Amino acid sequence: MSDSDIKKSDILVVDDEREHAQVMCEALTRLGHKCDVTYNLAEAQNKLNRKEYDVVVTDLVMEGRREGLDVMREALRKIPPPPVVLVTAHADIPTCKQALHEGAYDFIEKPLDLDYFRAQVNRAAEKAALQKENQVLQAQVMESAGFEGIVGKSQAMQRVVGTARQVASSDIPVLIMGESGTGKELIARAIHNNSRRRKERLVALNCAGLSESILEDELFGHVRGAFTGAQSEREGRFEHADGGTLFMDEIGDMPAAMQAKLLRVLENGEVVRLGSNEPIRVDVRLISATNRNLDEMVAERKFREDLFFRINGMRITIPPLRERREDIPLLIHFFVQQSAERYGKVIDGLTPEVQQVLMGNPWPGNVRQLKNAIENMVVLTTKPKLDVESLPENLRPAAAVDHLGGMNNLVGISIEQAEKELIRNTLKLVNGNREQAAKILGIGERTLYRKIKEYDLT
Known about the structure:
The chain is an alpha/beta fold. It has 19 helices and 14 strands. Helices cover 47% and strands 13% of the residues. It is elongated, with a radius of gyration of 30 Å.
């Protein structure tokens, strides 16, 4: 790890031997860390009460007493608690092992090997940085998921959520467009749950693959004897949703004859069950969804223009996941937490290599595919952190490397050329966001900036 990749942290050093404290402080400041030094328990407690530290390094025995344990306990009361590294003589190792059970991060024996000391404190600093990053992601998830669990901070998703909020309070028909797996039903439920109809039913029907006769029976119901096998009467989806909302998914797949019958119901607010002549009044709000381009279908006369105008009161278009990659880290964090809680697992994030693969995948199945992949990883892993071995077979690096822009074609070129292409393609994936690119590549931002300048990348 280069100096530029080390997480720069605020560190509290506590040791009653002033010279020893200054040596530790100097060893850490040379790496770019900021250090405050105190020489007794009272000063350390005062510092901890006045400032948040990323890491605490404390001698175990000060002034003949094991005051380092009191420093540790004071630090661990903070939220979140900083990692605490104890410095100790060999004779006190049993006490330090007990301290590990109480929450200490690690202990280091005297006399100090400064290289080992720096390495251990750097690891503690990385843990603290990961805790902060998880807190930030959690806050962003909570903020972005404030509208019925819809996760996304990209401008495109913020527009979707904003429109859904605005349209929820009205009864205007809504048409939700987007590829399969983008979350069209989630948006429909959010609109219903925030409408004046929220105490009534939301009834869903997927029109894909249904014949005209089955679809008509599903929507309008039938009376006894209407057809062979109709042993009793049955209300259709419109009646079942009376007073509430009917969500018709994949409405673009509806047969042409059924389009005319649906239009008639939407115009007069009445349904007639199969085998009956009696109209039944219904009060239903319609939310439709499709993964097809209805504008083109209307132009090609494959979808009725008058029905299109009727269902297209307000249009919400959900972008595919590949066009809002900045939402992927949030979604990953959200689904890891959700799956870990569901299956009783303790998952401490994922490795940079896995993050890189997940960010680079094109996700043709969109959010649904990402969710299924994360759930699969959480269920099958036996480790506290998701790594490359946790990935489903089709997402393993050998299969996923193509998603980074044809990286398997780099055989036979220099390492510098391969690195240049990797950085170029990663920047392309995140639309030039250097902070995200650095995280995916597992390097520091300063290192990335230097590489961009070195390779003359824009």
